Amino acid sequence: MVAKTGDLYSQIDPHQYDFDTVGYYLIELVNEDKILGKVLSYDETHVVLQTSALLRVEVPLDRIKEVEKVKSESIKSGRYWFDNPNPTRYLLSTSAIPLKKGEGYFQNALLFVNSINIGVSNHFAIGGATELASPMNGQRPLFVALTPKVGLETTENVYLGAGLLHMSFSDWEGNWTPFGVAYGVTTLGNLDNNFSLGMGWGYDEDGFQSGTTVTVSGMLRIARKASFISENWILQDVTIWSMGVRFFGEKIAVDLAFMGAEGAAFPFVDFVVKW
Questions:
Q1: Domains of the chain and CATH, by start
Q2: 74-110: string of b/e by CB count within 10 Å (b at 16+)?
Q3: 57-105 confidence digits (pLDDT tens)
Q4: CA distance to 196, 200, 237, per residue, from 246 (Å)
Q5: Residue 15 carries which DSSP code?
Q6: How do residues 113-151 score in pLDDT, each as one tens digit?
Q7: For strand 207-208 and strand 194-204, is the pairing parallel, antiparallel, or unpaired?
Q8: DSSP H or E stretch at residue 134
């Protein structure tokens, strides 16, 4: 028996994969090597693939760890363009695209700011953030944050999301001041190319404040392992812009960008590990 979730097959019985000879398959072996190709034939013990280099490869079924049927649009010039590993986030803000259940990522921004987010279900994720500079000096963190988010695809390539950025800052005497932003966001596009418009409402101990924060963000995949990315915040008194390039593999991404406001700009660097 083979368990199938979407187009991903997990190995339960290696002798009963349901292959076809039309599409591409990405096969991961038990030694974690990966082979991409079209199935020429298969039987109860082996599958024969033709790779993009026109090589004929015979794979024993009992050496297969996982099988993924690859979408035709993911094959470009004979190369496999793996899914964008970080479609749920831009630099600091989030898209409406949700993490899937069990997915998650760790982000380190500007060396000391660290966050983690985990998909609890296919539509709900929970996360948190803090800084490490103060604890490294034997002091309490200057801030901690909680970042719950819900998101879903309402129709093809249209996503709606909402969430909370709840933060608490500490002064040197150890007094904590809570505040945050409740937001909604709409994302149009797919995992590689999308545009997001968000709106947030700030609050503190006295309740919600007047005025709103608007975010306008987008990403465009410009190469197999690179995307252009921009994130812009329209606040009551200032507009903060950013643009840069994200370089990524299947599980790791690095953002090299510039942020600016009122004629000044500074570099922004982060890295993300996805699972």
A1: 3-76 (2.30.30.100), 104-274 (2.40.160.40)
A2: bbeeeebbbebbbbbbbbbbbbbbbbeeebbbebebe
A3: 999 888 888 888 888 788 888 788 998 999 999 999 999 999 999 999 9
A4: 17, 25, 29
A5: T
A6: 999 999 999 999 999 999 877 776 767 778 899 999 999
A7: antiparallel
A8: helix 133-136
